Amino acid sequence: MMVRYFWMFGTNYMYAVEISIIVLFCFCFDPVGISTLCTVINSSPGELIILPECQNKIECVLNITSGDVRVRSRAGFETERRGSHPYIDFRIFHSNSEIEVSVSARNVRRLLSFQRYLRSSRFFRGITVPNSSNILDDDYNGQAKCMLEKVGNWNFDIFLFDRLTNGNSLVSLTFHLFNLHGLIEHFQLDTMKLRRFLVMVQEDYHSQNPYHNAVHAADVTQAMHCYLKEPKLSESLTPWDVLLSLIAAATHDLDHPGVNQPFLIKTNHYLATLYKNTSVLENHHWRSAVGLLRESGLFAHMSLENRQLMESQIGDLILATDISQQNEYLSMFRSHLDRGDLCLEDANHRHFILQMALKCADICNPCRTWELSKQWSEKVTEEFFHQGDIEKKYHLGVSPLCDRQTETIANIQIGFMTYLVEPLFAEWARFSNTRLSQTMLGHLGLNKASWKGVQREQSGGGEDADPAFEEMDSDILPQEPRLS
């Protein structure tokens, strides 16, 4: 076994470390090849335990970028990426048969995805594409194209769009937005590299997660686009700002394991150790995004300084989505609005507003129409309850909001809206008092009333908000909103 350490010092990083561990089973090693020969069973500072998964392979490569784990695949065209997913890190919770089915299905999807999007027979034979819109014409059917013409509409149905694009909503929508905002031309992006990057991003979301999957990422990206179109922002943002916003939105939950941070901490997950129990998931999403950006070479033509700045600022945006930091960001936002000192000509102020915009986009489900909002509510609750089922099975102590025996969708949603969504969107409306802001607040009020109606039917009158929210750490809960 050969171990090589590369220490890198970059902008806004204390340090980053990249380790390559190469296990040779034969005399030859292809530096370009990638393999699923090994699985990380345990990881702690200075220790990695690796087991081969296949006996007839040649080599095993494990890449750890900035301390985060990446196991790569050689099967098919697309890489097999595994970081935090419970099927790898919590094997005790799943049978071998479940793992085999899941891995097999993912391999098939990766192969089909590559064939569908990269169109290797065209690209690799050297046939050039006159402009990026032709790629859209090749890939989108008529109904999906019609929907993309209204991508800035707040009533955009991401579930329908995902069906029309055969489960590829994130790739299709984000590529379209890059083209719509002129980013491909402005930054001279290689459309093949862009498409490959987006395919890898989409594949690194876990479709078995009811909520934290690629459809959620596409929904957040569409919401972010709506906010970028708001007058205050559209008049002030630079192409660089828009680029960062769309990438951060598309990758903000990358490789989400379908469980929350407390679950990772109490199961001694290696990511919790790596990030010292602080913004564990958000740090992992960010590092995963950086890994894919570097792997795709999408911005390889930029200077090292600009690439480092991009990675750092994308991290700032993604880390802002940590719900445990909600009170801190909301207090800063409220203070700026009270003082009236936000100046969007200032790059730092613009970046802060983009952080707030991404926070809004991330939890905007209750601000959608009832038909869309209700679906999201059911999906996130299903994910909560699945975590609770695992915690019960292995006597881990059920996390708040995760017990299907004591919680209901209505109670959870009313609490979520009351303590988290309403305060944030009330302040956003102070900043950007537009038709969109009023529409979102209107939907929020109607949806909350609808859930209260459901709650009354189920219990004959009960608490307006789930008491589990009140039991959570006070730092998570923002102060009551002040309207002006």
TrEMBL record:
Residues annotated as signal peptide: none
Gene3D superfamilies recorded: 3'5'-cyclic nucleotide phosphodiesterase, catalytic domain
Gene Ontology MF terms in the entry: 3',5'-cyclic-AMP phosphodiesterase activity; metal ion binding
Necessary cofactors: a divalent metal cation
Catalytic activity: 3',5'-cyclic AMP + H2O = AMP + H(+)
Family annotation (InterPro entries): HD/PDEase_dom, PDEase, PDEase_catalytic_dom, PDEase_catalytic_dom_sf, PDEase_CS
Region of interest (Disordered), ranges: 452-484
GO BP terms, alphabetized: signal transduction
UniProtKB keywords: cAMP, Hydrolase, Membrane, Metal-binding, Transmembrane, Transmembrane helix
Parts of the chain that traverse the membrane: 12-34
Domain PDEase: 136-458
Source organism superkingdom: Eukaryota
Pathway: Purine metabolism; 3',5'-cyclic AMP degradation; AMP from 3',5'-cyclic AMP: step 1/1
UniProt: Zn(2+) 2 binding residues: 253
CDD domains per record: HDc
Entry protein name: Phosphodiesterase
